[in-house]
Amino acid sequence: MATQLSDAELITSLQARVKMEKKVYVPDERGGKSKKGNRKSEEKIEKMPGYNTRFMSHHSRRYVALKVMYFGKRFYGFASEAQMEPTVESELFKAFEKTRLLVGNKKESQYSRCGRTDKGVSSVGQVIALFLRSNLKISETNNGNSGVVLDEQHEGEIDYVRVLNRVLPNDIRIMGWCPAPVDFHARFSCLSREYKYFFWKENLNIQAMESAGNKLVGEHDFRNFCKMDAANVHNYRRRIKLFEISPTDVRYNDNQLWVIKIRGSAFLWHQVRCMVVVLFMVGKGLESPNRREKRCMYTW
């Protein structure tokens, strides 16, 4: 395990990082300015402790689950795989790096997420899991897990919620954290997921929508209620555990806000969005709530 830096060494490291923001020139043989010094200085700085998350490897770490809330209006979804910015995930990892909580890179952190949300979608209960830096000392009963804290202890630990919320944008909040076993996976360990879709009632036939929605409950093949992803998905059967339509206490100009609640073990890409679109068609009288297998969008 690497030795801890002294105060003097830490100050020197921080000063070097500040100087990195400025261009460094050294005189060449003709008295001019050369850019070689700038490149060499940057190469030297990159090797200094604290510049790269890999240099945090001498710290103990623990596997934690974080509960995340975010307003999705300005984000291109949760996941950063689509190469569109900003995403909730990219903002989270910026915060992990800024607070020096990330040990190693994203892959080494054993990162997992409960699921993905689309552009503009908000969440109050997204769960992610990964290894983060810990203040706790390593227990002697770690069974060979080098540098990993396995205890359930909270006292003396980093206040992950406070530290992260100080640097995250205001539309992303960490709601809580808990230690997790190293074999925990935010996606595959999840027992159920719940979506709420808010809408104004206007002239929609709620009773017809409710009748159609109840037919979604149970296990069905939902390939015609999603955006196809044939390259990655081969099983389109999903189980819907709960379907409810209920009014809220929000009103505006004699129009009431209603909510559709759908709970399932898992969902396909755009599945909830497609189901809601069909329910709106039923509510507007464009589709019958009793129609089955007469159009490609209904497969049971």
From TrEMBL:
It holds the Pfam family PseudoU_synth_1. Keywords: Isomerase, tRNA processing. Residues 214-291 form the Pseudouridine synthase I TruA alpha/beta domain. Belongs to the tRNA pseudouridine synthase TruA family. Gene3D superfamilies: Pseudouridine synthase I, catalytic domain, C-terminal subdomain, Pseudouridine synthase I, catalytic domain, N-terminal subdomain. Its EC number is 5.4.99.12. This is tRNA pseudouridine synthase. The keyword Isomerase applies. Residues 25-45 are annotated as: Disordered. GO terms for molecular function: RNA binding; tRNA pseudouridine(38-40) synthase activity. It comes from the Eukaryota. It catalyses: uridine(38/39/40) in tRNA = pseudouridine(38/39/40) in tRNA. GO terms for biological process: pseudouridine synthesis; tRNA processing.
